[in-house]
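Title: [Solved] CRAL-TRIO domain-containing protein 3D structure

Original question kept below for reference.
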Amino acid sequence: MGLSRARKRRYHRKKTPRTRFAPCPWPQFSVARSVPFHSPRDAMVNLRPISDALNEKAKRELNEQPERIEEDLAALRQWLARTPHIRARIDDQFLVTFLRGCKYSLERAKEKIDMFYSVRTAIPELMRNRDPEVGRIREIVRLGVGLPLPQTDGPDAPRIMLIRPGVYNPKHYTIEEIIKVSTMINDILMLEDDNMVIAGQVGILDLANVSSSHFLQFTPTFVKKMTMMSQEASPLRQKGFHYINTPTGFETVFNMFKTFMSEKNRSRLYVHGSNLDSLYQHIPKRLLPKEYGGESDSLPSITSAWEKKILSYRNYFLEEDQYGTDERKRVGRAKTAESLFGMEGSFRKLEVD
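Solution (posted by the thread starter after getting help):
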């Protein structure tokens, strides 16, 4: 029997394999190249469940609509596939951090991802070679300079960060080494701390035992790098910053930081001096470590827990060196260290009383 015309057309149609993903030129990873909104990859959103309290906060403050997350994540992956100068992670949990941090504005999320990787590429002294098993990195981790506190003031409250620069010796460690470890902790929080991502973070900077040698490590260029990394290049929201035990010379560095801060972040700075009762009016005493009169774990206990956690992320930090931007492929003006920070070559030391 002869085949009908319709059947003949179907029979002779050219079989073209559909390739949804192209291999990435960097080992161990793949990058989406052309992903339909409802591809098998996106059929199920792979996100941690969040508490009811955080779910309500995300809806109320971040414009999160659970039924749209799948489509928004697919849109970001499609954009990254068409943006050759960015080498980025594309898993759901990573990308949703940027959607939440940008209140689900896709355009702002794209800009934030671009800046996130551009700044990291421009400051390799902070963002590359972050192997936690390297001797000096592990030494700094064990000092506990920056520690996320275990408890929050409620299920939908911000994460509290305690920073103690006075515990490191500035004659032995550079500020770049100290901040490198800080970025490692921040990366982990970005990946696994829903309170931090949805509710934001509150910082406590304890300047006890900080000397002029610490302050002299802060050049204007370095301060600008830090503020840009924590503002324009971060999806995390700063909800407040509290300074305690402030020494002589603090105002010089403080005023320089404020110069590079947004007006919103400047309005969230609080200087308490040595008056911890003033601090307790903003952060409940019970949430602080025992050494600060609180009811939380001791500083050695928190430090030890974070050492184990950072070591468990070793593969992640080794993989991170494969991500960033290739400015040769960017359409338009390249985002280099000079164009981003604008003060390369200016390494004047601060004059501290």
